[in-house]
């Protein structure tokens, strides 16, 4: 949870630097948990008001828009941690090629310092 809060509070639009594998995946985990909760709240609200249950609810829309920039930023920092440019993030626009992006996110950190900064795993030791 601390990783999610750290990204949302301290690194909201920080595209420079590196994000460790654990920082990225814990962010993704809590992002999905909160998205499910917000989606359930939208469903309950739609049921109580007799509204349309199809499509995206207002709470989900606010959540998605509010977390869009930090989600992209932590993904780019994760790519930096593997020694790749943030421009690789655009490969997600190609449906099958996005599996390559997933593979990059799963890879271990590049050893030592790279052009994007110090290794975040070594900072914690």
Run of helices and strands: HHHHH
Number of helices: 5
- Fraction in helix: 55-70%
Coarse morphology: elongated
- C-alpha end-to-end distance: 20 Å
The quaternary organization reads as single chain
Pick out the low-confidence regions.
Answer: none
Based on CA atoms alone, the radius of gyration comes out at 17 Å
Q: Biggest β-sheet, characterized? A: none
On the 0 to 100 scale, the average pLDDT is 89
* Secondary-structure class: mainly alpha
Classify the beta-strand content into a percent band: under 5%
Structurally, the number of domains stands at 1
Features:
59% helix, mainly alpha, 5 helices, 125 residues
Structure description:
The longest helix is centred in the N-terminal third of the chain and has 29 residues. The chain has one domain. It has five helices and no strands. The chain is mainly alpha-helical. The two termini are 20 Å apart.
């Amino acid at each position: 949870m601390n990783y999610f809060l750290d990204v949302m509070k301290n690194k909201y639009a920080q595209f420079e630097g590196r994000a460790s594998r654990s920082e990225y995946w814990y962010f993704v985990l809590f992002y999905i948990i909160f998205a499910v909760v917000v989606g359930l709240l939208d469903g309950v609200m739609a049921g109580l008001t007799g509204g349309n249950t199809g499509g995206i609810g207002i709470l989900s829309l606010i959540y998605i828009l509010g977390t869009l920039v930090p989600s992209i930023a932590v993904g780019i920092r994760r790519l930096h941690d593997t020694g790749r440019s943030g421009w690789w993030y655009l490969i997600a626009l190609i449906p099958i090629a996005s599996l390559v992006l997933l593979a990059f996110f799963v890879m271990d950190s590049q050893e030592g310092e790279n052009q994007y900064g110090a290794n975040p795993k070594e900072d914690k030791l």
